[in-house]
Amino acid sequence: MNCPVCDHEMVERDFGGVKVDVCEGGCKGIWFDWFELSKLDELNEGMGQALEAALNFPRTNTEERPRINCPKCGIPMHIHKYQSSKLVNVDECYKCAGFFLDSGELSVMRDSHMTEAEEQEYLDKLLEKNETFQQALLDQAQERERVAALSKFTRFFRLSYYMTGK
Predict the structure, then answer these.
(1) Predicted TM-score (pTM) above 0.70
(2) Other C-beta atoms within 10 Å of 37: how many?
(3) Dmax of the chain from CA atoms?
(4) Nearest 5°: phi and psi at 58?
(5) What are phi and psi of 22, to 5 degrees?
(6) Nearest to residue 103, comparing CAs of 65, 70, 72?
(7) Three-state secondary structure call for residue 152
(8) Is 91 in contact with 78 (CB distance < 8 Å)?
(9) E strands of 15-65, at which residues?
(10) What distance in Å separates the CA atoms of residue 22 and residue 9, rounded to the nearest whole number?
(11) Can you list the positions of beta strands (E) in 83-122?
């Protein structure tokens, strides 16, 4: 498999029970297949010389780098913040669920990994700013009120009202 950034051949390395593909001869990026990244995104996960070497590469990704194509599927990957680290943009393939991290991003991700409480607080902040989500919450509250009013109104139409006296 070739690196989606620099087109060098990626080599498989063992990061302590998790085999990933590393662009050793080029940009030092790392390819994670489905669920592999979640096994290595926190401190003290994984081990070995290959992981240590990857963690010591300097961070090279810039915001100017264009979208890349998935090295497995060939479709354009989506760039977004990683779920547990708001400091790292990851490239994710929505078809095969693989992740590509540029050099140094795994180290930053592990150093800035959020706790569950921090993740929830960050998510709440994002959703608070999202107008579509806020409108959906209002619509949902109005729908609940409407359903409650209809339920109260239609209780006279139910046989159980007359049988139990409610």
Answers:
(1) no
(2) 25
(3) 80
(4) -70, 155
(5) -120, 140
(6) 65
(7) helix
(8) yes
(9) 19-22, 30-32
(10) 9
(11) 85-92, 99-101
Give yes or no for a contact between 47 and 78, defined as CB atoms under 8 angstroms apart.
no
Share of the chain above pLDDT 70, in %: 92
pLDDT digits (tens, 9 = 90+) for 15-32: 988 999 999 988 888 899
| Cβ neighbours for 116, distance < 8 A, ≥ 6 positions apart | none
- Lookup result for tokens 């990061």: 15
- Least reliable range by pLDDT among 53-62, 67-76, 94-103, 157-166: 157-166
Q: How far apart are CA 81 and CA 92, in angstroms?
A: 10
CA distances in angstroms from 24 to 30, 39, 91, 137, 157, listed in the order given = 9, 21, 19, 48, 73
Residue 60: CB atoms within 10 Å = 14
**CA proximity to 100, closest of 14, 12, 29:** 29
Distance CA 68, CA 100 (A): 9
Q: How far apart are the first and last CA of the chain?
A: 70
Cβ atoms of residues 14 and 8 within 8 Å: no
**Category of 91 on φ-ψ map: left (φ > 0), alpha (ψ -120 to 50) or beta:** beta
Identity of the residue numbered 48? G
What value does the mean pLDDT take over residues 129-133? Answer: 84
Look at the block and give the residue holding tokens 């926190």. 42
